[in-house]
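Morning!

As promised:
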Amino acid sequence: MNFVVLQFPASNCDQDAVHAARLLGHSARLLWHKENTLKDADAVIVPGGFSYGDYLRCGAIARFSPVMRAVTEFAANGGMVLGICNGFQVLTEAGLLPGALIRNRSLQFRCEHVHVKTVTADSPFTNQAAAGRLLRLPIAHGEGCYFADDDTLARLRTNHQVLWQYATADGAITDDANPNGALENIAGICNESRNVAGLMPHPERACESVLGSEDGRLIFESMIHAHARRAGARAA
Amino acid sequence: MNMKAKIIITPKKAVLDPQGKTVSNALEHMGYEGIMAVHVGKYLEIDLAGTDKVVARQRMAEACSRFLSNPVIEDYRLEIE
């Protein structure tokens, strides 16, 4: 499976994402934001960082990069796209995911390990984790407070688009477990067609025990599984 | 003659504004009474060539809703001078 990891000026988790994909035995390459085509991509990762210095708003400038037109088309054709941290912000700015990420409630940059609860296994990003499965993942962001208006939130709930929620170590969804003030403890969501997802925590930094957690693997393994299933369906 | 677009971007009322809240608290601590609420936003000045204010307003309004502000979380006010 070919992962393509986008690279904007000031992306800084791009190499980590490539490393994680290769660690899992798959190919991954970086793609500069001025490129117009994704070529052989089976999945796109929009990585973390501070694209364009977070000027104006996080992700606001990156989303007009030439490569994002290709990503939008790829997503419209059902391609898997995962936005991590700044990548999540880019995808909301691009309108590929609903809502927005705003300044943390505490006004602090939060850099720590948190627990997130897998809300549903019904997505290409969670199919290897049963609903309720807790993942211990690092976060590192100042603007990760998920916001959406009431109608959008209701739609997210109805369509089961919330994939991960911040939780305590024993799985309770509490205000104390919420590191940034995100509405309904939302750590990550997917679009209505379920092929585009974004989350604030960093699964790519949690794929080997030396980094303190291997739980991030489940997200990449889910994508790999979804791709294999899709390729199998095409061959049949 | 050139024109200037003046754009004020503020968080929507429904959106949590921790910066505004913190500034509001600080003002109260400093003894400024009667502070009801503070909203922290952004101000942009854009120098424009030409004199057609109607066209300039149209183009800048489009830029505001597509790029300069995020309609999910922000409102904007636009003046052309």
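The helical segments of chain B are 18-29, 53-68.

Hope this helps with the figure draft.
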